[in-house]
Amino acid sequence: MDTRNLISQRPEPRYVTIERALSRAIASGALPAGTVLTEGPIADLFGTSRTPVRTALNDLMAKGSLARFEGRGFVVQGGEPARVPLTPAMLGIGDGEPAKPHPVAAHLIARDFEDTLAQALPFGSWRINEQAAAEHFAVSRTVVRELLSRFQDRGLVRKDLRSHWMIGPLTARDINHYFAVRRKLEPLALTDSAPLTSMDAIDAMRQRLQTALTTPHSLAPDRLAEIEHDLHVRLLSRSPNPHLLRMIGQSQMALVVNRVFAKAVGSRPFELALREHAIVYEFLIRRAWSAAAAALDEHLHLSAERTCKRLMAISVFPMPDLPRYLKQSA
Known about the structure:
The chain is mainly α. It has 14 helices and seven strands. It folds into three domains: about 5-90, Orthogonal Bundle (Arc Repressor Mutant, subunit A), CATH 1.10.10.10; about 105-170, Winged helix-like DNA-binding domain superfamily/Winged helix DNA-binding domain (Arc Repressor Mutant, subunit A), CATH 1.10.10.10; about 170-315, GntR ligand-binding domain-like (Four Helix Bundle (Hemerythrin (Met), subunit A), Up-down Bundle). It has helices at about 5-10, 15-30, 40-45, 50-60, 105-120, 130-135, 140-155, 170-195, 200-215, 220-235, 240-250, 255-265, 270-285, 290-315; strands at about 35, 65-70, 75, 125-130, 160, 165, 325-330. It has a four-stranded antiparallel sheet. The protein has a three-stranded antiparallel sheet with strand order 1-3-2. The protein starts with a helix and ends with a strand. The model is unreliable at about 1-10 (pLDDT under 50). GO terms for molecular function: DNA binding; DNA-binding transcription factor activity. Keywords: DNA-binding, Transcription, Transcription regulation.
């Protein structure tokens, strides 16, 4: 099952749904000019917390549809303030039932959540707001907490002294440390795993790489990530040592730098790395496991310096458009 397709079908963030409903009600006159709006009643009608309601109201104020009302609540522009009881029909909900989100399993948002967090890594230190993330993905805080705990096990996020979830920063020193660990562990896992991997599977990875090398300057970031996954994850996954594989996974955090870099500048700078991959596969096809491990070690050695340079380049890139559940920390 391709969970990425399922992710794209997940419910939109709650604040977007609420903002649209309020905007339509204002435009249609269902919410007349002068109507006073406060967070509590709207949250009750939509079966949600006040956080997405607050976001929706602030967005509508920024667009000029609402104004602040006596420091508490908002008023629809264009009329004398009037407190009007809100009904589901006024907001297009219908049947008097709160517009509750459909339940979404953790695995359906995991890739989306992880990718977004990874994008923030090279741009400093960030605090992750559990409630805002839950509202963004239309899931419970329990689902968000479960995923953050998994990410913590892999070293992607951490908790600070106040038990706030944090991510970043990723520094050149971190990258060098990660690659030092990878150079020790990945060749070891390769010598464990490759002899247990079918030659058909190895050849399929090699063919994907060879196809990519026919157009190395125009590869989509997702395709580049798949090739990286072949060599550094899939090829090593047959190792019978789960502790080794877990430590490798925790040390591959620096791969996010290449992912962000590829999205910004394309695949042209990665051609040399792909050709280093090809050398590893040539040895694998010949069942020269030790030589393949040595080639992988050399590839990682060269990659460390390239990745540090890319991190420096990323520091001058425009900040990515990150969701509201990420707040930059001082």
